[in-house]
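Hi F.,

I've been meaning to write this up properly since the lab meeting, where we talked about keeping a consistent format for the predictions we share between groups. The idea is simple: the sequence comes first, exactly as it goes in, then the structure tokens exactly as they come out, then a line or two of notes. No screenshots and no reformatting. I'm using this chain as the first example so we have something concrete to point to.
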Amino acid sequence: MEKHSYIGKTKEEATKEAEISLQETRDHLIIHEREIKQGGFFKSKKIAIEVIEKREVVKFIKSYLSILVKDLGFNANIEVKTKEIPTYIIYSDHDSLLIGKNGKNLQALSRIVAQAVLKEVGDSFKFLIDVNEYKQKHEKSLEYLAKKVAREVKNSKVAAKLDSLNAYERRIVHNILSNNKYVYTESVGEEPNRCLLIKPKED
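Output, unedited:
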């Protein structure tokens, strides 16, 4: 992954130079202030920055993920969607093995890639990894479950507990029901036994 260095009297000046040189806007760049070069009596201090283009990070993730999946013994194709958060969809002949029980292998895969990005870039970078759109399908099933239980809680006025949801799944349910007029959600307990409650709102 190519990293570019720029120097200016201020970080702002160095960043402007990076934007012009790379023909990219600031929101498409990852910028780190690496050092301050102090001038002598007749020289003002200089600010040095290191810049990485986000599109280079997107390419790095695909390359790293391809090698990782191959090293695990899978033949796979990876499709990249970059509308908002870069999403890498893996298609293989062994989707269930890549996903794992309750998506645990997929989560582990995501953590490994995230660590590689952090080491290479020096900062976190938002991206998603999916296998044959498993997450999309799973989120739809969670949405169906959340709305179904919410209706039951609304009618019965009795709280319901959703077990066996990981933090990611609980967050999805929280978001789905965040604007519900009749119920609210609450996470209780400690990991790994933390669960989600759907409770009726008081009239």
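Notes:
The two ends are 57 Å apart (CA to CA).
DSSP finds six helices and nine strands in the chain.

If this format works for you, I'll send the rest the same way.

G.
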